[in-house]
Amino acid sequence: MKGFNIGELYIEKPIVQGGMGVGISLAGLASAVANQGGIGVIAAAGIGMLEPDGHSNFLEASKRGLRNEIRKAREATRGIIGVNIMVALSNFGDMVQVSLEEGVDIIFSGSGLPLTLPGYLKEGYKTKLAPIVSSGRAVKMIARRWLERYNYLPDAIVLEGPLAGGHLGFKKQQLSDPDFTLEKLLPGVLDEVRDLEAKHGKAIPIIAGGGIYTGADIYNIMKMGADAVQMATRFVTTHECDADIRFKNTYLEARDEDIVIIDSPVGMPGRALRNEFIDQVMDGKKKPFICPYHCIATCDVENSPYCIALVLRNAQRGNLKHGFAFAGQNAPRATEIISVADLMGQLEAEYEEAARADSSG
After folding, report:
1. Which one of 10, 29, 70, 195 has the largest count of C-beta atoms within 10 Å of its C-beta?
2. Are 179 and 34 contacting, i.e. CB atoms less than 8 angstroms apart?
3. Measured between alpha carbons, how far is 186 from 161 in angstroms, rounded to an integer?
4. What does the alpha-carbon distance between residue 64 and residue 51 come to, in Å, rounded to a whole number?
5. Which among 45-49, 183-187, 293-297 has the top mean pLDDT?
6. pTM score over 0.90
C-alpha cells in the first residue's frame, strides 16, 4: 500500500482510523494506529462525559478530557494524530480551539458543514483541516465559503458513504439507494476536487470511507481514484480500542439482521446494533427526559425518548442494558479481537493479494 501526503504531512499507510465518539476512539486506539503508519483519530464527541465531573460541568470537562487524550496520544506515539469534531456539537468551537492549541496534526469535521472551521486558525498553527462530506455538492459549497471568507482550501476531503456506522449524512431512503453507494458518490467528489486543484495549485487528497472493511476494499476504492480510506468499524474489535470488552463482543455476536437504522435524537439517521434497549425505544417504552448535557445543538431534547450521549457512554462502558452500540454495515463480519498491528498487517496482505489478482487479469 502506498502512502500519501496531506500538505507536508506524509502518512505511510493510506488508512485513517475513523473517529468514534463517546469514548470508543481515544488515545489508546489513536496512538496504536499512528504507530502502525496510519492516522489515529480521537473523537471529541461526548468526551467530557468520561471525566469525573462530566455530569455537572460538561463543557469544561470536555475541554479538559480532549486535551488530556491528545497529550496521552502524543506521549505514546510519534505518528500522526487527528481529532474528529462534529459540527453539531454545542461546544464545537471549544473543541476546535483545544485541538489547535495542542497542535494536533489534522482536524476532521462532519455531521454538518464545517463552514467556519478555518476561522479558528491563527498564525503559527500547522493543523490541517479536512471536512467530511457525502457529496461533490458539499465539497463545492465548503470550498467556496472557505475561499471567500478565509482564503483557505481544505487540506483533505473525507467522503463518507452510507454504509458507515453512527450518525449518517444521508436521508433514510438514500441509505439503500444504489445511486448513493460510495462508488457512485466518489466520481462527483473527484471532479470537484480535481477542479479545485487545477484552479488553485493545491493537492487535496480524497479519503473514502463507509463500508471499507478489507484490504481488497482499499485497493478497489483507491483504484477508482481515492488517495486513502477511512475505517472505523474494523478497529472496534482490536485490543487497543478504548471501549469495554462487552462493547466489542456485541460486534462478535452480531448477525446481519441485527443492523438497524435508528432515528437519532440529533436529527440524523444512525446505524446501530439492535438490542433490548433499542426494542424498548421502538415499542414506545422510553419517555422524554431532562437533558443534563446540551451537548448537541440539533438534539430535540424536549421530545427525545433518551439521551444519545448518555446511552453511548453506557455502551462504551459495557452497560448495554442502558445503551446500544453504533456500528457500520460490516460489523457482523468481525470474528475475533486482534491487535492493531495484526489488523494493519492483514489489511496490507489483503491489499497486495487484490493487486496481484488484478494485475494477472
Report:
1. 29
2. no
3. 9
4. 8
5. 183-187
6. yes
CATH class of the structural domain 4-242+336-355 = alpha beta
Grid-cell match 460489523, residue found: 331
SS3 string, the chain, reads: CCCEEECCEEECCCEEECCCCCCCCCHHHHHHHHHCCCEEEEECCCHHHHCCCCCCCHHHHHHHHHHHHHHHHHHHCCCEEEEECCCCECCHHHHHHHHHHCCCCEEEECCCCCCCHHHHCCCCCCCEEEEEECCHHHHHHHHHHHHHHHCCCCCCEEEECCCCCEECCCCHHHCCCHHHCHHHHHHHHHHHHHHHHHHHCCCCCEEEECCCCCHHHHHHHHHCCCCEEEECHHHHCECCCCCCHHHHHHHHHCCHHHEEEEECCCCCEEEEECCHHHHHHHCCCCCCCCCCCCCECCCCCCCCCCCHHHHHHHHHCCCHHHCCCECCCCHHHCCCCECHHHHHHHHHHHHHHHHHHHHCC
The amino acid present at 338, given as its one-letter code, is: I
CA-based torsion, 176, 182, 183, 185: positive or negative:
positive
Query: Can you read off the three cell numbers belonging to residue 113?
Result: 458543514
pLDDT in tens, 11-66: 999 999 999 999 999 999 999 999 999 999 999 999 998 999 988 898 899 999 99
Residues 6+ away with beta carbon under 8 Å from 91:
59, 62, 63, 295
For the record, the C-alpha cell of 142 comes out as 465548503
